[in-house]
Amino acid sequence: MLLITCPWCGVRSQTEFSYGGEAHIVRPLDTDAMNDAEWGDYVFMRKNSKGRHLEQWNHAMGCRRWFNAERDTVTYRIKSVYKVGEKAPGAAE
Ligand SMILES: [Zn+2]
Predict the structure, then answer these.
(1) Radius of gyration over alpha carbons of the chain, in Å?
(2) Which residues, including other chains, have CB under 8 Å from residue 73's CB and lie 6 or more apart?
(3) For residue 87, with 0-12 CB atoms within 10 Å meaning exposed, 13-18 middle and 19 or more buried, which class applies?
(4) pLDDT by residue (tens digit) across 64-79?
(5) Among residues 2, 27, 63, 70, which is most buried (max CB within 10 A)?
(6) Is 6 helix (H, G, I), strand (E, B) or coil?
(7) Cα–ligand 1 centroid distance for 57 (angstroms)
(8) Strand, helix or coil for residue 48
(9) Which among 8, 23, 18 is positioned nearest to 58, based on CA atoms?
(10) Would you say 38 and 31 are in contact if contact means Cβ atoms under 8 Å apart?
(11) Cα 18 to middle of ligand 1, angstroms
């Protein structure tokens, strides 16, 4: 069983959480100026990294808050969690 640490509630079972995809996807500001290829890239194209991956999780069966996690896609180990709006671990200032 995978254990996930909610930044507000503490350690809980994975069954309490919903996966929300890659973190730090920035919604384009001027979508009318985008062509179909650019819009398709924004909607569908995501990293498929081996190793460190920054992703969103929702504590759906708990506080229902969203947060980000740094997870290793090889070992499934979650190295750290941080609140939405905070910098990712190891990110440049
Ligand atoms: Zn929670």
Answers:
(1) 15
(2) 49, 50, 51, 52, 53
(3) exposed
(4) 999 999 999 999 999 9
(5) 70
(6) strand
(7) 10
(8) coil
(9) 18
(10) no
(11) 11
